[in-house]
Design goal:
- The complex is a heterodimer of chains A (about 120) and B (about 230).
- With about 120 residues, chain A is mainly α.
- Chain A has one domain.
- Chain A is about 85% helix and about 0% strand.
- In chain A, α2 runs antiparallel to α3 and α2 runs parallel beside α4.
- Chain A is globular.
- The two termini of chain A are about 25 Å apart.
- In chain A, about 30% of the residues are buried.
- In chain B, about 45% of the residues lie in helices and about 20% in strands.
- In chain B, the strands form two sheets. Chain B has a five-stranded antiparallel sheet with strand order 3-2-7-1-8. In chain B, strands 4-5-6 form a three-stranded antiparallel sheet, with helices on one face.
- Chain B has two domains: about 60 residues; about 120 residues, 2-Layer Sandwich (Alpha-Beta Plaits).
- The radius of gyration of chain B is 34 Å and the shape is elongated.
- The chains are: A mainly alpha (about 120), B alpha+beta (about 230).
């Protein structure tokens, strides 16, 4: 559990000092991609907790989810279909579901320990 | 906690990327917010600068004019403003005539005759509608013109004339006409008394120059003063 947190902190520090700014036009796409990656990470954590974790699935899921989400929103923008909110809803929903699964898993394992 | 061992490294890597994205997004959002206010500041300061420039220019002009030095207004322009030059342009001609109704017994017959205030109301309305030059029966209205009853006639610029009265007004012809014909306006009120009011819109209306004399017996030019100062 230490390693992922370390990675997160390192990434945040890197991002803080890395001179990259997302253009305003792409801020929307980027935020959707971010949400997708957030979902992937929680999904990965949950899978790891449930011992169903596979490296390849996790890594490919992370990138393809983010890219696909951004791409879909981009296409939707061009077609006049606001897929942005759809993506927000879907990923938000999944993040909560993953979090709930994670919590339940930890609770269960804790109570087993107590027993 | 110890359950998560497998894939710990890959999760760490992905978390690194995620952290990076989070930070960039955070910074971008922050920039966006500050950017907007920055733009606003620039816009407002630009406007301030412009206004200050304008003010300085006007101040200079005021100074120059107070000194009486070369003003931009030429002789012809001044004459035009004072009503000393005949003018022509689009506008309206309003004909007012006494009422055709016969007054009922016991009623004041004066109500059916044109009075100075009827004429004044029409002229006031025309001026409010942006008329640039007005004449009544060939008498140009200027700053000192009077319109008052003089027996059965009206006196304008000390020249008397009887009904019908013809008012020539130059200005935006539709605005002038609408101002008079407005619901509840002058034309409607005068019609109640049967006073004949006839508005004709023309592309070219002639308004003559003021032909009277000027005399300034009492008024003398002086310095600019505040009214409060002047009283004491």
């Amino acid at each position: 559990m230490i390693l992922p947190v370390l990675g997160l902190v390192l990434g945040i520090l890197l991002g803080m000092f890395f001179p990259v700014v997302i253009p305003v036009a792409y801020a929307k796409l980027f935020s959707v991609a971010l949400l997708a990656s957030l979902d992937s990470v929680f999904g990965g954590l949950r899978a790891a907790a449930a011992d169903r974790f596979t490296n390849a699935v996790f890594i490919t899921g992370f990138f393809s989810n983010a890219l696909l989400a951004a791409f879909l929103v981009f296409i939707g923008d061009r077609l006049g279909i606001d897929l942005y909110y759809v993506a927000l809803l879907t990923f938000g929903f999944r993040i909560f579901k993953n979090l709930a699964g994670l919590r339940r898993y930890f609770l269960r394992s804790d109570s087993q320990k107590v027993e | 906690m110890k359950h998560i061992h497998k894939g710990s490294w890959s999760i760490a890597c992905v978390c690194l990327v995620l952290g990076f994205m989070l930070a960039v997004q955070f910074r971008t959002t922050q920039d966006l917010k500050s950017n907007v206010s920055y733009q606003r500041i620039e816009e407002i300061s630009e406007r301030l600068l412009q206004t200050e420039k304008e003010r300085d220019k006007l101040k200079e002009e005021l100074n120059r004019m107070q000194k009486g030095e070369e003003t931009d207004t030429s002789d012809a322009e001044l004459k035009l403003r004072a009503g000393l030059a005949p003018v022509e342009g689009p506008g309206v001609i309003v004909r007012l005539d006494d009422s055709a109704m016969t007054s009922k017994a016991g009623e004041n017959p004066n109500l059916y005759v044109i009075h100075d205030d009827d004429l004044l109301r029409v002229i006031n309305e025309l001026r409010a509608a942006g008329a640039e030059a007005i004449s009544v029966n060939g008498q140009r209205l200027i700053g000192t013109s009077e319109i008052r009853c003089a027996g059965p006639t009206l006196s304008v610029n000390n020249v008397r004339s009887a009904a019908p009265y013809e008012i020539h007004a130059i200005g935006d012809k539709t605005t002038l006409e609408n101002a008079l014909r407005m619901r509840g306006g002058v034309a409607e009120t005068l019609k109640v008394w049967g006073i004949q009011l006839d508005i004709s819109v023309r592309d070219s209306v002639y308004v003559p120059a003021y032909k009277g004399s000027y005399k300034h017996e009492f008024a003398k030019p002086t310095e600019d003063k505040d009214e409060k100062e002047a009283k004491s």
